[in-house]
Amino acid sequence: MRLCRFAADKLGLIEGDRVKDVSAALDALPAARYPLPRHDLLIAHLSELRAPIAAAAARAKSMPLSDCALLSPIANPGKIIAAPVNYKKHLEEARADPAIHHQNQVAEIQRVGLFLKATSAVVGPSEGIAIRHRDRRTDHEIELAAVIGRQADRVSRAQALDHVAGYCIGLDITVRGPEERSLRKSIDSYAVLGPALVTSDEIADPAALDLKLTVNGELRQQANTRDLIIDIADLIVFASSFYTLMPGDVLLTGTPEGVGPIKPGDLIEASIAEIGTMQVKVR
């Protein structure tokens, strides 16, 4: 399935370049009351919703995907876990460019580990990116985002990918400076997810996906997930050895070389093979 959220929190099923409103399927979710669960209800019950989604799609009219204001396909991620410098060429460019490292030590991911982004940073493609510190350099970073589908606590490599519900495109927007990564990457709108959640059964091999990002039509980043230093399965092993992963948690797997500055008025187009393309405006 290719699921999106659009307009006023509607659930959509994408079929080609069309979308069907399958929000009626959400009635099958269990009722929740305070204190609400610390995970995403839709992702936690995704397998149970397949039949209701199919039934709702059979009754729904389709609309052009291009007419839909797309929100983040994950409404309530409990955690956003990110992998720094997880492509060798990006590690090299980060060490070579003072505007990127800003006198910070840029060490290998095996040494520095993972970091967390605030969930309040999450937006969808239609919401765009709002530059907060215009006096400082702010960069784009395209990443494959893996969405956890079920609880994962100290999982083995052999079981790791069984815990993935699906994948989407992630933009890990970063303001450069001397502060810790989590602070500089957690600004409102600095975690763009979209255009849809593509369930893992739709992705033949997540370790062989082409990524591409352009700004105003200029190619900035181009790579393949086969170039990851630590692959998706081992990232899940790594993350789950420190904390329990829950349904809806998002794992940003790292960005390749070519990161560069963005400014208000720019248009970012990000694509990942088998997932799709999203356009994101900068303001």
Structural description of this entry:
The radius of gyration is 18 Å and the shape is globular. The strands form three sheets. Strands 1, 2, 3, 4, 5, 6, 7, 8, 10, 11, 13 and 16 form a twelve-stranded mixed β-sheet that branches. With about 280 residues, the protein is of the alpha+beta class. About 45% of the residues are buried. It contains eight helices and 19 strands. The chain has helices at about 40-45, 45-60, 90-95, 100, 110, 155-160, 180-185, 230-240, and strands spanning about 1-5, 10-15, 20, 60-65, 70, 80, 115, 120-125, 140, 140-150, 165-170, 175, 190-200, 210-215, 220-225, 250, 260, 265-270, 275-280. The two termini are about 30 Å apart. The longest helix is centred in the first third of the chain and has 14 residues, at about 45-60. It folds into two domains: about 1-70, no CATH class; about 80-280, Fumarylacetoacetate hydrolase, domain 2 (Alpha-Beta Complex). Helices cover about 20% and strands about 30% of the residues.
Based on the model shown, name its key terms:
283 residues; alpha+beta; Fumarylacetoacetate hydrolase, domain 2; 2 domains; 12-stranded mixed beta sheet; 4-stranded antiparallel beta sheet; 19 strands; globular
Instruction: Characterize the main sheet.
Output: 12 strands, mixed
Q: Which percent range fits the helix content?
A: 10-25%
Number of DSSP E strands: 19
How many domains? 2
Query: Can you identify the CATH class of the largest domain?
Result: Alpha Beta
Structural class: alpha+beta
Helix and strand pattern: EEEHHEEEHHHEEEEHEEHEEEHEEEE
Proportion of residues in β-strands: 25-35%
At the fourth CATH level, what is the homologous superfamily of the largest domain?
A: Fumarylacetoacetase-like, C-terminal domain
